[in-house]
Amino acid sequence: MKKEIALLICLVLAVGIFAPVTSIVSANKPDGTPPTLEKRVFIHYRRGYGKPPWAGGGNPGEDSGQHKLLGKGVEWKNTPITYVVDPDFSNLERSFVFSATVAAAEEWDVHTSAELFGSAAIVDDASWDYDAPDERNELLWGDYPEEGVIAVTIIWGYFSGPPQIREIIEFDIMFDTDFAWGDAGQTSETDLGNTNVMDLQNIAAHEFGHGAGLADLYDSSSSEETMYGYSAYGETKKRTLYIGDTAGIQELYG
């Protein structure tokens, strides 16, 4: 599976960060033309490493001050969102992987009136879908071929056209096996706990934010937000939402 994931990642890099894929669907635009199925790929970097070209200069999405949306009207039209988790290659206990990811998803739920994230399940066959969605929201581990990348999330949906026809239909999250994963805990009043591991709940909370419809933040004034685009070993502050995160999820779902 790991070799297959690496091959898929290389193909993603070849087509770029944003790669629209045409798909004929039943819901048409007002002019009668079908909307276009697209994907957006968000790369989560370790502090001090690379950054996407828009970092610090206008991240794609609707800027609402303390948060950024994927776009006006780009949200889930049908909730709750179900998802599966594949712990292979994580070097973690399956029970821990499940509890940490569920806790990360639930943090978004408690800040909105919607029942946003629903049931989860552990599986052994998750895939990172770069070519087309497969009707499953999936979390898994793989080897991303760029240094300093902690995780990558693919969002599939309809991001163009009138806001009323825009929506998210799927997301896939891949955690990079280059990092040691685990429970960083919190050993002080700072945001750092066990600096020997990348905290799974911390990173998963950020990636679930993309899955729900939020984009990255890169301004240093946003460094306390869960959707801030950089993280580090031992960081745990993204486990809990901050002011902008809460405002963003409530703007989308109430």
Describe this structure in words.
The chain has 254 residues and is an alpha/beta fold. The protein has a single domain (2-253), classed as 3-Layer(aba) Sandwich (Collagenase (Catalytic Domain)), CATH 3.40.390. 21% of the residues lie in helices and 22% in strands. Helix 2 packs across helix 3.
CATH architecture: 3-Layer(aba) Sandwich
Q: Report the oligomer.
A: single chain
In CATH, what is the homologous superfamily? Collagenase (Catalytic Domain)
CATH class: Alpha Beta
Unreliable residue stretches: 1-26, 55-59
Main sheet summary: 7 strands, mixed
Strand content: 15-25%
N-end to C-end Cα span: 39 Å
Backbone shape: globular
What is the name of the CATH topology?
A: Collagenase (Catalytic Domain)
Helix percentage: 10-25%
Which helices and strands occur, and which strands form pairs?
Layout: H1 2-15, E1 38-46, E2 62-63, E3 68-69, E4 81-85, H2 94-109, E5 117-122, E6 138-142, E7 149-158, E8 167-176, E9 181-182, E10 198-199, H3 200-212, E11 230-231, H4 243-253
Parallel strand pairs: 1-11, 4-5, 4-6, 6-8, 9-10
Antiparallel strand pairs: 1-7, 2-3, 7-8
Helix pairs in contact: 2-3
